[in-house]
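Q: My labmate handed me this sequence with no annotations at all. I'd like to see what the chain might look like in three dimensions before we decide whether it's worth expressing. Could you predict it?
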Amino acid sequence: MLPPFVHDTLRWLRNETVLPAGSGGQSPDDGIPADAGAGAYAAPLAAGIAGACGAAALLACHFLRLPSFAVAAVTLLALAAVRGFRLESGTVRGGDRLAGTAGTGTAVLMLLLLAETAALAGLVVYHTPRAALALIAATIFGSTASIVFRLTQPARPLEEIGDTRPSHSTALQGLMVVTIVVCTALLLPVFRIGVTAAAFVAALCVFFCVVTIARNQQADDVPDCAALAGKAAEVAALLAILAFVEAS
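A: Here is what I predict for the chain of 248 residues:
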């Protein structure tokens, strides 16, 4: 019998990544339950494990003395593979849905990937171990943004969708508290308060921008728009960290 925190972490790993997290004492098809916020407090740890896989790829590429841009590109490819390319494919579909034009999502994804690769390459040049920590934190930001979007959207009045809409306030509180604690523990000791605050603010601002753009989405659009919000928050966090590191 696994402790509840371990069980919830394994469940989020199974649903958010392709890592062999085991069954956690449940049936193999035991996914996120009808209450999508159940165990959300454990999602940042699951995202951190995925980010750690990307960080391991970053360090391995660095030890092979690859150019910084190649290190960043291989790292992001490894991270995307660990997550089953969920955020990337969802970003493509979400961009197409929001713009109403095929091809827009691909262009958005390419811009985000280019910005993320450049930001990570800059951090690798600055300090590779710190870049690895920044990547893990950014991965957690992205995962949290995606989950928060799924739990809060579509944000239509209750009278439009009935009084049966579930409340996820407790799940959101747990998710945000754990995200803040873990990301602060990763960033604050090595980047100090300015960079840490900038990463939080950048991820939060980009998340609200996506929410504003997607305010008229339908329920079927939520998973793809959530992936777009998550990817954008991840990129914004890395860019903010690099910007403040370069400015200091």
